Every structure is written in structure tokens, then in C-alpha cells.
Amino acid sequence: MWRPDFLFGVATAAYQIEGAAAEAGRHPSIWDTFSATPGKVHNGDTGAIACDHFHRWEADLQQLADLQLDAYRLSIAWPRVVDERGAPNRQGLDFYKRLLERLQSLGIQAFVTLYHWDLPQCLQDRGGWLNRDTAQRFGDYASLVSRELAGLVTAWCTLNEPWCSAYLGHANGHHAPGLKNVRYGVEAMHHLLLGHGVATRALRSNDSAPVGIVTNVNAVRADSQRPEDLQAARLAHACANSWVLDPLLLGRYPEELRELWPGIEAPVRTGDMERIAVPLDYLGINYYFRANVRSDGAHGYVERMLPGVERTQMGWEVYPEGLRDLLLGFKERYPRLPPIYITENGMASDDRVVDGRVEDPQRISYLRRHLAAVDEAMRQGVEVKGYFLWSLLDNFEWAYGYERRFGIVHVDYATQQRTPKDSALALRDFLRQRKAGPRAG
Ligand code: IFM
Fold first, then answer.
1. How far is CA 54 from CA 63, 95, 359, 368, 393, in A?
2. 7-436, which class in CATH?
3. pLDDT tens across 3-32, in order?
């Protein structure tokens, strides 16, 4: 059922696993500041140690090989490779160089994200993503790492989930830097997307690896067939999906944003939209759940939890068909849709080690059902080239700290002991079979 060149991988992000927050010249990011602020992260957790991957990376990469994975999606920590004056930090660059060389020698393809939310605090002090200049600084950073790491990367990704950086970080304050103003969210989004355009050009001038961007998408359900709830669902879809995809693939922001946030406009200057809509070599799609929405009685929408549906530890509805439907919808809406990778999909559960084993049957079933949804979309003509499970390891789940466990490998944070969960073993067996022969997978 899966073409031999279809990639199966897992994903992680620097701040969520590396730890070593103040080692080897790394300086603080907005997430160090935010997580150290009382009340921002569950239990006061921070990424200071996380999975200690900075010191344990060799064993963690061996784990990827043991699980028979084709590819690994990781991110580079900007404040680890560039110092506070913008100069290269050799120790940080060497860390990633060694890591990528090891992946290459293991035969594992590297998908490298430049920005998975850890903006250097020193740039935040100058306005962060509200300052247009940050897009240029992002381009400088992209230029440096692509010069240094050229030839070691299978595919570059500029930004991970700009929606989360913009909205959760600047409009509702749930994420770093913790600002709460929709106008800021709209401005930050524009500068993030501009940064994507600037970085894409820099990456392409130094390396021939494909360049893309990763966006999170949600399926949306209207709570009823009442016109106001249907309208609410239309606005929710525009906010969750089209806000990022329209500028990238159509070169304009969706009209619905004006209905949702009257009087708020992105700070677009001449030439910006052309830069943002630079052709992509691939699009990364992160999918987790469906949201059920109804009218808020004004011009917005609110979420109402649907009763009686399957949920994960995050409280997110499990709805695999949503992934298929979104992919088919994107194919229809965007004539310039590039090939797609599912760059994240997975679930959190309250996993525990019992007698050396972690049973996580819901995750195995989740994985199977979402892969079936991807397969269906492919059969109906969507070009999907790979699937990355979130995540290799249990890790720092942002505002939820370490309580939510997304890994297929369990981490005991007191001892840093890793235990592959049943889902990891099931995936390994599936991939082993697939590699064994054409009739197997
Ligand atoms: O942990 C995050 C990841 O950093 C970005 N995408 C969603 C995941 C689960 O919430």
C-alpha cells in the first residue's frame, strides 16, 4: 500500500528535548523567559533539562535506527548557533553538524526546521516578531546555518506552525512571549511569513535541498446547521487554516479575517505578498484534531466540546477523517499546492512503565487510523510523500509542561531512562516488514 519512497519518520523540536539551556554558548530564548515566569507553564516546568538530548543525542539517534525509521524531523535552536550580537557560535553549530553527520551515516534523512518557537530573547527585547527587522534577522540566521550545514540536510523547513507563534504567542498569551492582543497576533503573523520568504531565498542560495514550511491545520465542525453556526465554522476554518495557507499559496490574506477582526489589518508593504508566496518545494502539514464551533453571538466563534467522542490526554477529539478531508480541500482550493509531507501527527496519553513495558493501545490505533486517512487522500489524488509521527520522545509540551506524553518512547525524567512504548515496537515491526519485501507492507 505504501510506495517504497514514501518516508516514515518521527519529529522533535529543540526546546522540547535538548535541555542544556545555558551550555556551550546557548543564550536564552523567549521560552526560557516564559517558562521561568510563575504561572505560565503547568507545574513550573521549563526546558532547562528536558530529555537531556544535548548530551544523549547519540543514543537517541541510535533509537531512530533501531526503530527502522527512514527520516527524522528536528529543529535547530536559534540561540544555540548565533550569539547575542548575531555572530556564529561555533560550539552550537558543531553540535548540529555532528548530529546531522551521524544521521547521514545511519542512512536516516534529516528534515531540519529553523524556527520551532525559540526566538532569542535578545531579539524579543527589540520587539520580536512585532518588529519587521526580525524577518531580516531570521534570514541572516537561515543564511548562516545553510552555509554551515549544506549537504547534510534532506529538506529545510523555515517555520514550524506560524499560527501558534502568532496567535498563541501574541493574541491569547498561552505561549511565549505571552502577549494578548489580536492586533499583535496579526502583525506577528505577517512578519513571520515575511521571514519565511526571506529565509527561503537565503536557504536556496546556499544549498540545493528542498525548502518548505510547516503549518498546523484543524478540521472544523459546525455545532448545528443554523446559519450563524455555519458562519462561525467558516470563520474558524479561515482563522485556523487559510490565515497561513492563503498568503503562502494564493498571495493574499483571507477576506474572512476582516469579518472576524474588523479594523485589524496586516502591516503589508509593497512586495511583501510576492515574497511570502515564493513557490514551495513542499508543504508540511501538522494535524491533530477537529474543533466543534458555534457562533459567539457577535462576529466570532467559540468552541463547544462535543460529548461522547474519543479524546486524547490533551482533550483533543480523535478524528482521522478530518485529515483526509482537509487534504482534499487544500487540493481543490490551491492550484499551486506542492507535494505534502505530514510533518506531525500523534497523541498524548498518560503512559506509565509497568514491569518494563508501556502499553499504549490508543496510540497504535490512532496511528493506524490516521495513516488510513492519508492513504485515502493519496488514492483520491493528493500527493503525500511522507508521514512523521509526533514525537520520538515524551518531552516538554509547552504550557502543559511534562505532564502530557506524546512520545513513542517513554522518558522517565528523574533518571532519563528511555523505554520504547508498545506503539514504537508496533511501528518498528511494520517498518521492518515493509523493508523486508514489496509484498510485506
Ligand atoms: O508539541 C507540539 C509541537 O511542538 C508542535 N505541534 C504540536 C505538538 C503537540 O502539541
1. 15, 8, 28, 32, 14
2. alpha beta
3. 999 999 999 999 999 999 999 999 999 999
Per-residue model confidence as pLDDT tens digits over 165-189: 999 999 999 999 999 999 999 999 9
Ligand 1 neighbours, Cβ below 6 Å, are 13, 16, 161, 286, 344, 390, 397, 406
Which of 274-293 are b and which e, b meaning 16 or more Cβ less than 10 Å from the residue's Cβ? ebbbbebebbbbbbbbbbbb
Q: With a threshold of 0.85, does the pTM exceed it?
A: yes
**How far, CA to CA in Å, does 243 sit from each of 144, 167, 185, 238?**
29, 11, 11, 6
Rounded to the nearest angstrom, the distance between the alpha carbon of 344 and the centre of ligand 1 is 8
Q: Cβ neighbours of residue 431 under 8 Å, at least 6 residues apart?
A: 8, 67, 68, 69, 70
Q: Report domain extents, the chain.
A: 7-436
Ligand 1 centroid, distance to 208 Cα (angstroms):
28
4-8 CB contacts, 8 Å cutoff, 24+ apart: 4/438, 5/385, 6/384, 6/385, 6/386, 6/387, 7/70, 7/71, 7/109, 7/341, 7/385, 7/386, 7/387, 8/69, 8/70, 8/71, 8/386, 8/387, 8/388, 8/427, 8/431
